Amino acid sequence: MSQVKRIDLDEFDEKIKPGFVEVSTSALGGKVIACSDDFFASRDNLIKPTPSASMKGQFGPNGALYDGWESRRHNPNYDWVIIRLAPALSSLHYVDIDTSHFNGNESPYSSVFALRLNPSELASGTDVKLSPKDPRWEEIMPVTELGPDSRHIFQLDQKASSGTWSALMVRMIPDGGMARFRAYGLPIPPTPLTSLPDPSVEPINLLDPLLGARIVTCSDKQFSPPGNLLLPGRGTDMSDGWETRRSQVGRGKYGKGGPLEGKERKEWVIARLAGTGVVKYVDVDTAFHPGNYPVACAVEATLSEENMPPESAVWTTIVAKKPLGPHRQHFFDVERNVPIDQIFSHVRLSTYPDGGLKRLRIYGHPIAPSPSPKTATLPGDLTIPALPLTVEAFKPYGDVIQGYSFKSSAPKGTDVTVANQGTAFKFHRLAKVEETYPAGMLKRGGLGIGLIRGMPHYDTRHGLRIPVKMLERHACTTQAFIPMGKGVSPGTEPLPAGGAYIVVAALNGKDDKPDLDTVRAFLVTPAQGVSYHPGIWHHFMLTVDAPMDYACVEAQVGDPGLLLDCEYIAPISPYCHVQVPPHSFEPAAAPPSALAPEHSHAHVHEYEPHAGHIHPHGHTHSAFETISHLLPSLPSSVEATVETLAHPTHAHSHAPVVPLPITPESFAPFGNIIRAYTDEDARPATMIVQGSLKTGKSEKYNRLAHILESYPYDSGAVTSISVFRATKKVGLERGRVFDIRLMERHPYTTQAFIPMGKAEWSGKGEDALAPGGTFLVVVAKNGHDDRPDPQTLKAFIMESATGLSYAAGTWHHPVLVLDSTLDLACVETQVATGVLDSDPRDCELLQWEGAEVFGRVAVPE
Fold it and tell me: Contact at 8 Å (CB) between 111 and 172?
């Protein structure tokens, strides 16, 4: 007969529990798959991860409510539940049977049985059906007395701890209630490899609790326990992460006389891996911690046979101190000085100075310790992973240009405003546009926007190892690449769907050559752009999987061979190799942002061009009137100089303008078009086209649009790239007439808008925007009265494969998006962002009210 030993609660919680995994919990995938009776309270409550809550005084249709499992009265034998354990196989060492809040209706006795599933049943997951009469059940805890409203910890005997089990049957004898049941054991770890696998073998999460990983200890768990760091998924809210108390300067343990007085403020957690192994990269997730995430983190690792490494353990830094951002995953490559075959058993994550994290994952390969010496990687032998692009990981090399689903997800310090009369969020100055050429070397207009059509170098969708055969740098300019959409314009061939690109970057070394200790690689979606800092070594555009167009923002003199423009190094043997993981970047429909801005309303008419008349619908309030009550809380709405006009154009005075497809010729009076020109006969005579001399895989159209500004020297104006997440304007409908009540101009700067691509790397970044989206462009020339001339009103349809640049002073309607939300990269020069201050020179905005409008546009079907 099996034997059990009762364990003291404090001893278990403080000393024993950290050495085991709660293998029955629903948080890891445990599931109650059968039950004899749960008339009063659901069986599913039994394995909830949270402590049982008191529901005293609350009643439902069947009686009093309890946060636990409760059966009917008067059972002559026993009630039972069958629990499918979260891991496929696990040893079992302890059970925690909790009767909290059950007093007078608790289960008086309990017993526990265990069973091992066969391989076919294991393959079926939680869908397996088990009977309480299955002959394979083995008793691991005999009938044991329980008390009311208390936890009971029992140590199981050798049969339970030495066996491997898949399911449990818990009996309540004869009936009653249990608040929680928790089984603790050690899941079967992955079989260790004997040597490093081929680079194409995908690493696994060595901190997976279903494989036996567990938290050992931590410095603080004031608001939520560190065990949550290992849970699957990205959680539901702030509660299911790890959050510490605030460690404020001069207070608590860092205060005068405290144990850590004068030391750097940080919190830490130590976790034991699922066996031993080598580490390839780290995932630190701050999901649902938008205002309390740590400023930075670092990760160390060690090898120890003990559950808790001794104080004498030697810790190796595998991720040096790196900045963190809000509500996102951060992927960090292992430091280059760590030998690729160094074996670890534990990791220590430090957060600076404190805060909350959602998840920690350590990706690598399970390998048994070897007595052979650890060897550093030789140049050329190095293989680095292509990781998802994040702002923080790319920070040493440049900036990331992208939109965000949540205002609070933007990088710390980014000004975010509501823009375009409540139809967009503007993420300001995500990347600066700078040049440091010697005075006089650049001609006016040397800073500009070109386009690169990148053909795929490789198909990496199923994973591929790619050699890095060159690196280049641009010493005197930032260089930004912004992937564009793939909308179809009339007369052009659409690009195939899909595509991604690989970014490889390195800092400059002491020898004025690439420092290979700092080389990193990123696999980037079409929804993200990058801007390299001046002097950063990087690979040329490595488009993969499908063709893509990129807007290229840079300064160039243009003289062939000028090193200040571009310095190119191609060694005899590759610098290193990049391992691209299997992936799919297909666009995916996404729900509207939880922080989508308020839509403004406009005067709308239904348009019937063949009937010769218009039926008015809707209200007569202008967009500006609709949101005027919001102005105190929407600073960006007042960043322009606003003037109300009564222009002598009545809403029904003449036929509406019909938009045309935008072309370089038709838009020339107002600015420039940014697009590919694959038809040589259609190219402007002055266009500079540069085929790739390096690979033959790309074609570059130089300076399609100049970046110009004429602010006074002391204005403090900044040229930068922002992103508008622009939503469809309420009232702007296809097949209807849209009244033009707003026009604006930027007297001192050109302003370019580049529709960005749409895609996501599922589970590793921002969700993709819904497919589609078209830009309705409305422009007019300046009149003799220094106001837009309604007789020159033009409207264009611009698909997402095309960008535009308004010439300085061009009157245009604020961004109008049809059909679906677009991310629009905006290249402009501005003095202020509208958050803390505004400057009237940045934007002049005119509005028309009541029956008077500037003009009307017939939006096409």
Answer: no
Residue-wise pLDDT for 458-512, tens only, equals 999 999 999 999 999 999 999 999 999 998 766 677 888 889 999 999 999 999 9
Of 302-316, 401-415, 439-453, 765-779, the range with the lowest mean pLDDT is: 439-453
Give residues with Cβ within 8 angstroms of 208, minimum separation 6. Answer: 230, 274, 361
**Full-model pTM:** 0.85
List of domains in the chain? 5-185 (2.60.120.260), 204-376 (2.60.120.260), 404-580 (2.60.120.480), 604-672+717-858 (2.60.120.480)
Contact 88, 122 (CB under 8 A): yes
Cα–Cα dist 778/797, whole Å: 9
Side-chain half-sphere of 236: how many Cα atoms within 13 Å? 2
Number of alpha carbons in the 13 Å side-chain half-sphere of residue 278: 22
**760 close to 767: Cβ distance less than 8 angstroms:** yes
Confidence at residue 380, expressed as pLDDT on a 0 to 100 scale = 57
CB-CB contact of 275 with 193 (8 Å)? no
C-alpha–C-alpha distance, residues 822 and 817, integer Å: 7
Q: What is the DSSP letter of 101?
A: T
Question: How many other C-beta atoms lie within 10 A of the C-beta of residue 687?
Answer: 15
Termini Cα distance of the chain: 79
For the purposes of burial, counting CB atoms within 10 Å of the CB of 413, is it exposed (0-12), middle (13-18) or buried (19 or more)?
exposed
**What is the separation of C-alpha 325 from the centre of its chain, rounded to a whole number of angstroms?**
10
Give residue-wise pLDDT tens across range 170-217.
999 998 899 999 999 999 988 899 888 888 889 999 999 999 999 999
146 in Cβ contact with 79 (< 8 Å) = no
Q: Which of 692, 784, 740, 623 is nearest to 472 (CA)?
A: 692
